[in-house]
Amino acid sequence: MKRIISVLLSCIFAAAVFAAGKGDAGKSRTGGELFVYSVINDEETRLLTELFTERTGIRVTYLRAATGELVNRVIAERKSPQADVLLGGPSSLHIAAAEKGALSPYRSPVSASFPAYTKDPAGVWNGFCVLTLGIGINTDRFEKKFPGKKLPAVWDDLTDPDFKDEIVMTDPASSSTAYLFVQNQLQRLGYDAGWEYLLKLSPLVGQFPSSGGAPPKLVGTGEYAIGIAYVHALAKYKAQGFPVQIIAPPQSAGEVDAVSVIKNGPNEANARAFIDFLLSEEAQTLFASLSYTTPVNPAVASVPGAVSIDDVDLLPYDAELAGRQRDQVLDRWQKTVK
């Protein structure tokens, strides 16, 4: 992956300040500014940061881009950080950034009673929602393309040659969704057998878009019959009335979407305040309603229509291993798979 350090992006970021509202002077704690690199979608980022400004008086600027791009950007800028918060992306990628010296540990007091799996013991990352992988099926297109054929039920079913050019998944070089899928197979099958699976599957994939939001959309709108995606993203399209069926195969990887403080960023105190806010009941309720993800705050329930992690046969997933292997795995992917 290329490290993105372009003047154009810097200009876009500098121009991305938005007026998040006047705020409530009675609720303002610190004021000042906050600069966020956000992986989550634009609407979710905007509404969360607007609420944060309303509650604290802190003005927010954000840049929205794909996970791989922003992780590389944080690492590349570590000698002169341009942002305060890395918002979104699985914990494994925050671990990778931390190993390069780009993140500053912070243990939020808000998460003191949260389950252990939702946070890093050293405070390198703080989880704000739980994600699981699945398979999305556009039932109308599937029935038209494969009349009488059973829907895929397990990961190995996707290697059926009949599915050639009807599968969409993102590029793991730019998308945390696809990197989690790659690690899912490497850890489910074993490293060597996992690569054999990926080499068998990749020729059947019709498109490798860069954004994790693309496969749910392309499946929902019927451009592909099958998509590999997070189940919460598929659930959003199903809730909107698209003919989407969600399959959670056995031994699916689950991850915690994380938020971290960028080391030596211009506003570290405000970055910590943002993490505290993001873990609060109010912010967790808002984000769950927007994203259909599973909240990490035990006081907040998932919204109707969301896929409960209790209903998924989860793989014992090693996020630390995934973080350490990132460069090696992506290098091999670029050379042998894509």
List the main descriptive attributes of the protein structure presented here.
11 strands; globular; thiamine binding; Extracellular solute-binding protein family 1; 2 domains; eleven-stranded mixed beta sheet; signal; 338 residues; thiamine pyrophosphate binding; D-Maltodextrin-Binding Protein, domain 2; 12 helices; Ferric-bd; alpha/beta; single chain; disordered N terminus
Textual characterization of the structure:
- Keywords: Signal.
- With 338 residues, the chain is of the alpha/beta class.
- The protein folds into two domains: 34-130 and 255-306, Periplasmic binding protein-like II (D-Maltodextrin-Binding Protein, domain 2, 3-Layer(aba) Sandwich), CATH 3.40.190.10; 131-253 and 318-337, Periplasmic binding protein-like II (D-Maltodextrin-Binding Protein, domain 2, 3-Layer(aba) Sandwich).
- It has twelve helices and eleven strands.
- Strands 1, 2, 3, 4, 5, 6, 7, 8, 9, 10 and 11 form an eleven-stranded mixed β-sheet that branches.
- Helix 2 packs antiparallel against helix 11 and helix 3 (67-76) runs parallel beside helix 4.
- Mean pLDDT is 90; it is low at 1-29.
